[in-house]
Structure formats: structure tokens, C-alpha cells
Design goal:
Layout lengths: L2 H13 L3 H37 L3 H8 L1 H19 L1 H16 L16 H36 L8 H25 L5 H7 L5 H11 L4 H10 L1 H9 L3 H25 L4
Helix pairs in contact: 1-12, 2-3, 2-4, 2-5, 2-12, 4-6, 5-12, 6-7, 8-9, 11-12
């Protein structure tokens, strides 16, 4: 039996009897994301409508309205990504809950809020450190997708229906997205354990966590990539059939169990 299959079996076992808490943790994270993204979209749409009205009086504003897709692309990082980062300690707490679930089936749901108080800035510091270290590793592989997708959005913005080649270019962009995600996962694998080691020992500095993670992951990068690839069908199912609130707990628990194994091997030189 492969390590990936063992991890999945243990993930299902860990979730047995704990689905309400696991679904609740994911639902909380998704609701927070919606709570931030929906108001941002409302503000941006309202701005577009306001500019359209102003354009009826001032001809110079029409150029801004016609190129609003570019403005939208610039506003999204400020309106959505920045607030999400500021509340990222909640997401860190959600991950800690699943790690606790992987180690102990009686994990307390309060772990989700572990970094909402005095530990907020410590968690935010770690998140910022890992974001800086992984930004280019994530952004560059996704750059072809971003470039093609934004170009197509601009070219088709005022079209009532898409031409055949428009559809083909969108299909190519999604293929590049999938490839980019796989490459990004491979490049970021060295930092995979940083959060989980932090959960084990919060006194370690960000640099110590990263060094430990990179050292521990040297022999497991390919295994983690195989685990990520084996989860691809679940992600597709999540998009098309089963809601994310039921798929993400399984994925996060599998990741946490994988981390538990690697940390155990690092410290004890034996499987947990």
C-alpha cells in the first residue's frame, strides 16, 4: 500500500465522527472570504456604474469606463487580498484545528480561534514571512494563465457571444492554470511543514521554521507532489458535484496527516 493511500485512509478515519466540526471550520473560512469579497465586488460595481453616469456628462471619463477591466484588475488585490491577509490568522487557526484532528480525534473546535487574540501578530508574522518566500514561486508559474486570461477578458469584455478561438484561448488558459498550480506546489513544497512545526513549537522563529521545513522536506517533495496530484480528482469533483465544504476537510486532514508523519519521522526516525 502506498503512503498516499495510507494517508487517505487515516484521513477518513480521523474525520469519522468529526465531520460537523470539520465542515464548520471550512464553512467559517469560506464565509469570511465571502464576507470580504462580496462587499469589495459591490463597491467596484458601484464605482463602474458611477463612472458610467459621469461619462454621460464628461467625455474624458468614457476612456476610463471603456478600460474598467484594467481598473478592476488593479483594485481586486487592494479590495480583497489585503483584507484576507489581515485576517489570515483565522485560516492559520483552521489549519491548526485539522492538524489537531490528525493527531487526536478529540480535537477542540476552539483551535480555529487560537490566533485571534494575543497570538494574532505572531501568526500574521509567519503568514507574511511565508507569503514573501512563496510569492514568486506561486506567481511566476501562474503568470501565463494570468496573462492570457486578462487579455481575453479585455478582448471579449464587450462581446455578446464568444467566437470559437475565444473559447479555445480560454481552454488553453485553464490548462495553463492546472500546470501552473502543479509547478507552484512543487516549488513551494519545501515550506510545507512550516505551519505544522509552528503548531508544535510556537517559540521557534520564522527562519527556524523555514529551515526545519526545507531540511525535513528534502526526501519528501516527490511524495507530496504525488499526494497533491492524487487529490486533483477531488478538487474537480468539488467544483462540479460535491460542495467544497465536504471536500476541503478531507484534503486538509490528509495534508495534516502527511505533515504528522514527516515530523514523526524527522524526530523519531520511525512511522507514527
Amino acid at each position: 500500500m502506498t503512503a498516499e493511500k495510507k494517508i487517505k485512509i487515516q484521513a477518513k478515519k480521523a474525520l469519522t465522527g468529526n465531520w460537523p466540526g470539520a465542515v464548520g471550520a471550512v464553512l467559517l473560512a469560506l464565509c469570511i472570504m465571502l464576507f470580504i469579497s462580496i462587499p469589495a465586488d459591490v463597491v467596484i460595481i458601484s464605482l463602474e456604474l458611477l463612472l458610467s453616469k459621469i461619462a454621460e456628462t464628461f467625455a474624458g471619463v468614457k476612456l476610463i469606463v471603456d478600460n474598467f477591466q484594467i481598473i478592476y484588475t488593479l483594485l481586486v488585490p487592494v479590495g480583497v487580498i489585503l483584507p484576507l491577509f489581515l485576517i489570515s490568522p483565522i485560516f492559520t487557526g483552521v489549519l491548526k484545528y485539522f492538524y489537531s484532528l490528525a493527531k487526536n480525534s478529540d480535537a477542540d473546535f476552539s483551535e480555529v480561534f487560537a490566533y485571534c487574540g494575543k497570538k494574532y501578530f505572531r501568526a500574521l508574522s509567519l503568514n507574511f514571512s511565508l507569503l514573501l518566500r512563496c510569492f514568486l514561486r506561486i506567481y511566476l508559474p501562474l503568470l501565463p494563465y494570468i496573462g492570457i486570461r486578462n487579455t481575453m477578458n479585455l478582448l471579449t469584455y464587450n462581446k455578446e457571444s464568444l467566437a470559437f478561438w475565444d473559447i479555445m484561448w480560454y481552454a488553453i488558459s485553464y490548462a495553463l492554470l492546472f500546470i501552473g498550480i502543479i509547478v507552484a506546489v512543487r516549488l513551494c513544497t519545501g515550506h510545507f511543514l512550516s505551519f505544522f512545526v509552528f503548531f508544535e513549537d510556537e517559540t521557534l522563529s520564522n527562519k527556524e521554521l523555514v529551515v526545519f521545513s526545507k531540511d525535513s522536506m528534502k526526501s519528501f517533495k516527490n511524495s507530496m507532489l504525488r499526494l497533491a496530484l492524487s487529490m486533483s480528482p477531488w478538487i474537480i469533483i468539488c467544483i462540479t458535484v460535491i460542495p467544497a465544504i465536504f471536500v476541503l476537510p478531507y484534503i486538509l486532514t490528509s495534508m495534516s496527516i502527511s505533515a504528522k508523519w514527516i515530523i514523526a519521522l524527522k524526530f523519531n526516525n520511525k512511522e507514527d
